[in-house]
Design brief:
Blueprint: E1 3-7, E2 10-13, E3 18-25, E4 33-39, E5 46-51, E6 58-60, E7 68-73, E8 78-83, E9 92-99, E10 112-113, E11 117-122
Parallel strand pairs: 2-11
Antiparallel strand pairs: 1-3, 3-8, 4-5, 4-9, 5-6, 7-8, 9-10, 9-11
Length: about 120
């Protein structure tokens, strides 16, 4: 059974940094993209960043460009999201996702999802 487990969320002041991790297990994820989405209260789920199996192709939402960096370690089946210069607007539940797709911001492209980790940025 596929399982995605996120970690690294928490409370941080504006301007601070967090690093999210997501460990995947239960199958081989060769050729699968891994991505991060977020959902704030009352808002739709938003694709934040995604990365291809090789790491050569990435996607970033405009809100993440220049502040967030996605990376992956295929040996550990783990994807990371380094978030710098955090803003109160980044407050949301962050979800990890895996899909047989090119890096994409469309949630329907992803087959497996984690339970989410809360990120709260105080002003």
């Amino acid at each position: 059974q596929v399982q995605l487990v996120e970690s690294g969320g928490g409370l941080v002041q504006a301007g601070g940094s967090l690093r999210l991790s997501c460990a995947a297990s239960g199958r081989t994820f060769s050729s699968y993209a891994m991505g991060w989405f977020r959902q704030a209260p009352g808002k739709e789920r938003e694709g934040v960043a995604a990365i291809s199996w090789s790491g050569r192709n990435t996607f970033y939402a405009d809100s993440a460009k220049g502040r967030f960096t996605i990376s992956r370690d295929n040996g550990k089946n783990t994807v990371y999201l380094q978030m710098n210069s955090l803003e109160p607007e980044d407050t949301a539940v962050y979800y990890c996702a895996v899909g047989f797709t090119e890096p994409s911001s469309w949630y329907r492209d992803y087959d497996y999802w984690g339970q989410g980790t809360q990120v709260t940025v105080s002003s």
